[in-house]
Structure formats: structure tokens, C-alpha cells
């Protein structure tokens, strides 16, 4: 069952700004990472899902309901974290959580208390005195405390330190285990790799990739750093892989998805001093789609 359905969604702001013919869907229990650079269209797409924007054409549906026409009913089913959170600075964190609970008609704040403890935050502090990271924790608590079946999170870990980023990843995994449907935009590639089932990538308002994360990982190239005994051998070897390698003195940097045995059989012809290998990262794949890196 598709919980979230976006079909040919278009909102043109002029000057090539907006989103154009955006289509993807998310099944129940699936966690999808929504990747794109600043201004690519992630937040615009998410705001359509929340019913804040009406599209020029196409549709956005959640649980079969029109996101703009039936936004009130839909929002009861969604835990939402905006990219930029509007706080009431004179409130304490506790007061803001209580205020949002009343807005969402949440009677039982037991889960909110669990989240406050989990994120180790003092909610007695006034929001205007909080750091960016503390404010982000409050936003996360508000997004999760309703314990909804759907989570839509826009840049969820902005401002969080590495420890809290890891705690967020663990929280997402727990929510996945409950069968929740999750859409999360992020610039933290490790976060996406560790939590998501699929990646949807948007560039200049258009979808450029929609792939299963395991399929992506299996097709990722490897990076090799090969140190030859002499520069002459390095030059000779590098010519064999001219389109996918670089050389500095006697070290060749090679990117390849060839069978490793084929590479080793070729390297056996040379005197090799050292070799290091690693898989291509999701970040490098992202840069490939965005033309920022030839890898």
C-alpha cells in the first residue's frame, strides 16, 4: 500500500525555481531519504505534502487523501519537523511542548517525557536562551510525541552534535521497527545510509534518481590507492585505466567496479608497495549526480 503518493507535482516560481513533474511514492513502513542541495526543491515538495502549498498541476496524496484539500485530516496522522521551526521565544521548552500538545489534542504526554529524557534536554530553559541544537531537540520532541504512523522530517539533525545525531539515527530505527512510514530530507549522508530503504534525489526541481539503498550499495564502485615501487610502473598502469584514474608520482588513484580478481591479476605484473581500498560513499554518488565530482 502506498501511504504517500506524489504524481507529476509542479509549482513554478519562475527563473527555473520550483518543482517540475515530481513523482514518487512511499509504501507503508518504508523509510525514504530525500536528497538534494539547497534550493533543489525538497522543502517545496514537503510543504505540498503538508498542505501548505497548492500545486499548479499534479497531485500529492497521503493515505488516499488530497494533501491540500484534506490537510487537517492528514496532519492528524503526521509527525512533522519543518526545516525552519517557528518558536515562541518567551516560552520555556516545557511550555512550548505543552502548547503544541494542546494544538495537536495530545492528552497523554508520556512519550514526550521519554523523548525529553532520551535527548537529555532541560526544558525549563526559555527558548530564546537555547542553542540551535537545543531548539532542534525541542522540534524533534514535538514531531515525535504524537506517535503518528507517518513522519515527515525536513533536515532533522540540523544543529545537533555527533552524539545526538547518532541518537536520532537510533530513534528512527526504533520508529521503523514500529512500522512507521518515514520521509526525511538530509544533508548527512551517513544518516541516510544507516536508516533509509530508498533514496529519492532531486536536482533543480526534478527527480534525478529513485533507487533502493541496497541496490545502490551493491553497485557502488571501489576506490583504490595503489603505491608502486617506481613511477615508471605507475605511469604504465595508469594508462590502462586512463578514464577512471589519476596519478601522483608513483601512486595511482583508481575508481573501478570491475571484479577485484581482474585488477589483482593485472597488479601482479608490478612491484606493489602498498594498496588501500574502500567503497564509494553515498556522498560521492550524490556529487556524481550533481556534477560536482567526476566520481
Structural summary, described in words:
It is a single chain. This protein has 295 residues and is an alpha/beta fold. Helices cover 35% and strands 30% of the residues. The protein has 11 helices and 14 strands. The chain has helices at residues 42-49, 71-75, 93-103, 110-118, 132-144, 162-177, 189-195, 213-219, 231-240, 260-267, 282-290, and strands at 2-14, 17-27, 31-35, 57-62, 65-66, 78-81, 150-154, 181-185, 198-203, 206-212, 222-228, 245-248, 251-256, 272-279. It has a 6-stranded mixed β-sheet with strand order 6-7-8-3-9-10, sandwiched between helices. A 4-stranded antiparallel β-sheet has the order 2-1-4-5. The protein has a 4-stranded antiparallel β-sheet with strand order 12-13-11-14, covered by helices on one side. Helix 3 (93-103) runs parallel beside helix 5 (132-144) and helix 4 (110-118) packs antiparallel against helix 5 (132-144).
Amino acid at each position: 500500500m502506498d501511504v504517500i503518493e506524489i504524481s507529476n507535482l509542479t509549482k513554478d516560481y519562475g527563473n527555473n525555481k520550483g518543482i517540475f513533474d515530481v513523482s514518487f511514492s512511499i509504501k507503508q513502513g518504508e523509510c525514504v531519504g530525500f536528497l538534494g542541495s539547497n534550493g533543489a526543491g525538497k522543502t517545496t515538495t514537503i510543504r505540498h505534502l503538508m498542505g501548505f502549498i497548492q500545486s499548479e498541476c499534479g497531485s500529492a496524496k497521503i493515505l488516499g487523501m488530497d494533501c491540500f484539500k484534506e490537510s487537517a485530516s492528514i496532519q492528524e496522522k503526521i509527525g512533522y519537523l519543518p526545516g525552519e521551526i517557528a518558536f515562541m521565544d518567551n516560552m520555556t521548552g516545557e511550555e512550548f511542548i505543552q502548547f503544541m500538545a494542546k494544538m495537536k489534542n495530545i492528552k497523554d504526554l508520556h512519550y514526550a517525557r521519554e523523548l525529553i529524557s532520551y535527548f537529555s534536554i532541560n526544558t525549563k530553559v526559555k527558548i530564546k536562551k537555547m542553542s540551535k541544537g537545543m531548539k532542534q531537540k525541542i522540534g524533534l520532541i514535538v514531531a515525535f510525541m504524537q506517535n503518528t504512523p507517518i513522519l515527515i522530517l525536513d533536515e532533522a539533525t540540523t544543529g545537533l552534535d555527533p552524539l545526538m545525531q547518532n541518537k536520532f539515527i537510533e530513534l528512527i530505527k526504533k520508529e521503523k521497527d514500529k512500522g512507521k512510514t518515514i520521509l526525511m530530507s538530509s544533508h548527512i549522508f551517513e544518516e541516510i545510509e544507516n536508516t533509509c530503504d530508498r533514496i529519492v534525489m532531486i536536482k533543480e526541481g526534478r527527480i534525478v534518481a529513485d533507487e533502493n539503498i541496497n541496490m545502490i550499495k551493491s553497485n557502488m564502485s571501489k576506490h583504490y590507492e595503489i603505491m608502486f615501487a617506481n613511477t615508471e610502473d605507475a605511469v604504465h598502469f595508469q594508462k590502462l585505466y586512463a578514464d577512471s584514474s589519476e596519478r601522483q608520482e608513483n601512486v595511482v588513484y583508481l575508481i573501478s567496479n570491475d571484479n577485484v580478481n581482474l585488477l589483482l591479476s593485472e597488479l601482479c605484473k608490478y612491484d606493489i608497495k602498498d594498496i588501500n581500498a574502500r567503497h564509494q560513499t553515498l556522498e560521492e554518488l550524490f556529487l556524481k549526480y550533481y556534477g560536482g565530482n567526476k566520481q
